[in-house]
Fold non-specific serine/threonine protein kinase.
Amino acid sequence: MARRLPSAPPVLPGFSHLHVLGTGGYADVFLYEQALPRRPVAVKVLLAELVDEDVRRSFRSEVNLMGRLSAHPGILTVHSASVASDGRPYLVMELANPELGERFRSEPLQPEAALRVAIRIGAAVETAHRAGVLHRDIKPANILSTAFGHPVLSDFGIAGLQHDATEAAGVSVPWAAPEVLRGETGGTVATEVWSLAATIFSLIAGRSPAEQPGRANDHAALTERILAHDLLPSRAIPAPLRRVLDKGLAAKPSDRYARVEDMLVDLQAVQRELGFEETPIEVEIDAWAAEAPAPDAGVDEDSDALRLRQRRSRRSAGITGSRVDISQSTGRREPQKPKRFAIGLGIAVASAVVLGIVAIAAIALSSVSSQIPLVAEIAVAPDSGRVSFTWEDPGLVDTDTYHVRTSTGDALIQGGREFTLTGEPGEELCIEVAVNRDGATGEATEACGEPLP
Ligand SMILES: Nc1ncnc2c1ncn2[C@@H]1O[C@H](COP(=O)(O)OP(=O)(O)OP(=O)(O)O)[C@@H](O)[C@H]1O
């Protein structure tokens, strides 16, 4: 894609413009100095030609998503957002170093460093998924480093906007899952697993999985290879890690990890097998539910976030099955062993803060939820050891997803209209399905069934 000249930096009260940091498909990023507190900040300004009422609306909702998520240590911090006097929306972000994503071709990472980055970034993605948000553009260029050298994922939530704006440029083809390139979906958990695996591969191999040295590697060639699942292995990737990435890059979405968390557990196992220090997976854990505000602390009893918290609290009390132990290598579901969660108090507090913000956001978004289609009815098909749930399309638009919550405590996002839960005969298994549109979740529909012997 030909690089364009950056636009003129807007005049922002309280900020002095210093210089251009970079240009993207839909925005320019400038270095400003904030007056109070005095600090350098990166300001991302949407291109004027892309701004209309729809884009402004999307920008607002996407920025709210980023605000909700940016307490996570693996997600770039967003300080504030507004609209400049010339009408361009802008986002004030933590200043970070883009070298990691820019240099992977000339200076690929060693597997040990790449695994650390992968687990940290993957935990950010998993946390977003649990909040009902897809990134939709996981790639090396969206991994920046903070002033303290920690990798963080950027463009969170803004990615939906970016997709619309840069579809023609196809800038993310090398990391896009086949079903995205076929236009079947704008994003699912499975496509995020694919993109994360392709990103980890790229950081170590110095090229994306479908790129072939000495051959055409333009978007058309890469698309053709990704669709044909013609991926070129790299010797730089150790065998145990290759097995994990192969699963993440499986052609069929159902052959990939069902959740990012499951892939991270296997990456930790790879770290142990290769004798590397294990990186903690920083996602919210059951303990954080206890830290959350009580219902009488001004939180809407009816909000999705609260329902999820209550369900998790019940689960913590041992009433239902346990969540996957994210620090175990097997990927099997086992009871949690708190000492294995090398997650500091800071994370628990940050998670509690995220939950609080999520709850507040859920209330704020409830006014738009009435416009979000409702899943009319969920058909329940009990079978031996499992129950399958299916539902009709209630009238989705391209970027909508289904937000599925289960009585076993999982919350995930998917594009498909079916879901299966496994369990013991006679055990009541329930799911709630709601449509997620622009970060807002509509009313949920619930259905339950019992597995047959
Ligand atoms: N928080 C930040 N701190 C420092 N530099 C940044 C920051 N965010 C972005 N940049 C720089 O600005 C450039 C443009 O960023 P932007 O996110 O708009 O585009 P991109 O991700 O490279 O491309 P696209 O948006 O088309 O996918 C980046 O390549 C990076 O060099």
Notes: The first strand starts at residue 15 and ends at 23. The chain has a mean pLDDT of 77. Residues 116 and 279 are 6 Å apart (CA to CA).
